[in-house]
Amino acid sequence: MAKKTYDLLFKLLLIGDSGVGKTCVLFRFSDDAFNTTFISTIGIDFKIKTVELQGKKIKLQIWDTAGQERFHTITTSYYRGAMGIMLVYDITNAKSFENISKWLRNIDEHANEDVERMLLGNKCDMEDKRVVPKAKGEQIAREHGIRFFETSAKANINIEKAFLTLAEDILRKTPVKEPNSENVDISSGGGVTGWKSKCCS
Amino acid sequence: MSESRLLGLVASAEEHAIFIYTHRRMAITADDVSLEDIIPISLDFAVVEGKQQSDGRYEAGTPLITYKDNELELKLPFGSHSRLFLSEVNKAWSGRFFLMCSVYPPIKHLKGSIRKWRTCKHSNIFWKILGLCEMKQCHIIIDNITYETLLHEQHRASMVTPFRRSALLPGRSCNQQLYNASMDFLQSRPCEMFLSRSVLTLASLLPLPLVCASSREDRDDLVRSSSHTASNKAQILTMPQFGLRDNLIKCELLKNEDLYTYLESFSFFLGTYNVNGQTPKESLRPWLSCTLHPPDIYCVGFQELDLSKEAFFFNDTPKEQEWTKAVSEALHPDAKYALVKLVRLVGIMLIFYVKKEHAEFISDVEAENVGTGIMGRMGNKGAVSIRFRFHNSDICVVNSHLAAHIDEYERRNQDFKDICSRLQFRQLDITQPPLTIMKHNVVLWIGDLNYRISDLDVDSVKELISKKDFEALHSFDQLKRQIDEEAVFVGFEEGPINFQPTYKYDTGSDKWDTSEKCRVPAWCDRILWKGKNIKQQHYQSHMALKTSDHKPVSSLMVIGIKRVNSEAYKKTFEEIVRTIDKMENECIPSVTLSRREFYFKDVKFMQHHAETLRLFNDGQVPCQFEFIQKPNETTYCKPWLTANPPKGFIAQGGSVDIDLEVFVNRSTAPDLNCGKQQIEDILVLHLERGKDYFISVTGNYLPSCFGTSIQSLCQLREPIRDMPQSVLVTDLTVADTETAEKPLDIPKELWMMVDHLFRNAVKQEDIFQQPGLRSEFAEIRDCLDTGMPDSLPGSNHSVAEALLLFLDALPEPVVPFSFYPQCLECCSSASQCETVISLLPQCHKNVFNYLAAFLCELLKNSASNRLDVTILATIFASLLLRSPKKQVLAEKRKTQEFFQHFLATGSS
Q1: A1 to chain B: which residues are within 8 Å by CB?
Q2: Domains of chain B, residue spans
Q3: What is the CATH class of B591-701?
């Protein structure tokens, strides 16, 4: 058979309060770029990036969600189908950190049971404005048994590492199939997640 | 009758059929072909491979197809195409047989579609094929001409224009483009097509007796269900089943091969020996081990390995093993070799060895053969060939034995051409077209090519040989002359010949042919090559070997083989993947919205508000948009809101205006009036295969007496809009409390309207019969909701209509829903009707009696206002007595009868 250019498709989701830098984290990872102007994401956006892990080519489809409070009921419906969720807070914004437990509850309620979670404390380049100590992030991550990174989309710190680690964790849980048929069939779930498919069927 | 046709094997999920197309000239465009007939592959279908000839043998390549009572004889062109086609047909048939045996309900699709298709023009064919096919997986094997057909077909179907751009992208092979185009065309309608060219002998082409008219609907449904959406490369890119992504990457890798490969030289030993049917009698070392260093690769060819009839007819000979053993024993002693592949056609054999340490770099080894002998296809003449990949280079070695006899050089040229066109290697990836000899990076051609020395008598030839003037002799060589004329071996090279002719000797000696024929010596046995970075180290004959009437020839080639630098390869690959990821990201459908927030100010009952949302397609592809439902909601927006249009298509760079309209009617007003609902909604605009956008719709609603309950209005002594929202929410829904004031007998708004009419309109002609003005209604509504004026604005007719609207908008009608069945039951009895009314809640009873009294006053003036009991009963019964469900006609009459009692008593 022809060698496929990717073996697996992983769907990842970025959530967290408005303004913590979810879009920037994604933009840094997908385009290796950073934009200082803040444009609030009002809706759901996605980008793809192919990475190689343990000899497997993995296509990551990363969904970026609106963080604003008023959209929460809508955005939770996009959790379903995500294999990995990155929960982002801003180390210079205490409120965004306090809301972490609320976001974690949201994941419990709306995401797949086996979803791989990860906590990111973003904007770690702004040490002078830090209000959330790294230890607090580590502690809450430990309490929930999830990985934690402090990142900076602006200074490109830990962004790629975070995504690759999350993908690796998902890969570890993915059952290894026959070498000839290890291409997952993504035709059924390629484009849309959430309730769109439900309401169209 | 014998005519040329195109054949296609078309598969639906379970069914197969052969589609027969007529075509004018070579079918290049869609206009050139049209569907002529369809042969379903059902149980009565059979293929007999070849017809029986007079000598009892079956002729290959002319299968006979029988179905129902018809026969079709196909003359398929010789070659792997046809073989592949027939094997697919057989597979299809056996699959069908299996299905039938397992009592699978037969599917009517194919049969039902036949009649229509028999006459339809080509423009519809493919869509109809698609209509047949059920989704699962896409799998296509088509030959080049058909690719082209599909491509043109696709361009005619103007829905898929975006593809054209990508089809013209530079740097991709033509086949690739066509392949992609056909993939694009087939989009999400997977079907399995397999087409082959053929010449049909139409023994009989009768209308198929399978057509049944009843299944026409089936077909139409199928055709309809083949609806398609505009496609584009981005979409295809994300559909793994079409492999466009893979193909793009493969193409890019090929294009950038120089970036990650470097050349390394390897030595190839090529040998050819016509052994004249002999068995090995002497060591082959003088021939095969003549090099100082052991070569990396050996390709050793033999001709006339076995001249027996058994070998000819059964292709079986003990000599294969004998000679292979002799070769193995004679390979260079300083290295170990692995036998990779052996291929033989009757007496033509090719053996391929590789030095052990290189074996792991050999892949994709395939062997094929082509017979060009008796009747143009038997194996006494022809070629065998082995192709393989060595590191990153594709190499093809051909060993051929071409037609004999001095005068037959044109036949030899023809044999060469036949071999080149007919010899095809089936690719591992069966979606790829078969590989021909000439598509390889390196072609090494050895064999008894049988070209002779002509225009020179035997003595002159021998004299030149004795003088070792091979250059002069070479100018009389037919092969050299034919190559110079570009009649054969175009693009091939041959090294200078510095050895005497290798044919024909008396067996066991170095003496020229002494038989009666006394043949002219000739360089029958030759070695040629085609490709870059090839150097010939030696080219010689080996006189020491005396087993045959030919002498063996050998050549050592040093060939630059492309090796992969894995670091550079990884980098190149990653770069390509990055570029394609970028392309895919850029091709995600995207729009800009003129606004994301909409505020509707001062929304009032029955007042239309609209705002425009403009969508501009700023993406690189056309897009389809649709407002979609939010979780746990049944519609995409609240009932007081509509988006028009709610879905649509925007071309690249185009825009669409969407009207967001707010309209509060009697069904949505009650909840808004009492504050249970707000003007607040979020619309989700979804782009097919793309982003979702959230659009906020907010506003403030001005509560109105219209759509507010009688009970609530009776509590309000002030105009409704003067009440703070919080009061409305609590007080209007909660019943009397001790601290509250005594409620009004009837809503003051109702009183104002009725009193106005009583004072001004009792004699008004056609009152309640003529419509009012909408603008005047708005004034009346605002007047009632904001103050308590002495008289209302607007004409009598407008006030009358406002009254009707007021009654219509009451969440609970004047006769509450719970009393409705009772009213219907007792409608014939006046006294019982009155009893029912007496049981109504106080304020409802008041309103009812008040209205009845007013209407009776109107009837007193019927001479002027031209009203009568029937008219008023018809108008008011339906407002005062509303059914909680949909009202049927009989109920309507009963409600009128009920209400008439009150009008009659009043008038008497």
Answers
A1: 428-429
A2: 261-564, 591-701, 703-809, 812-907
A3: mainly beta
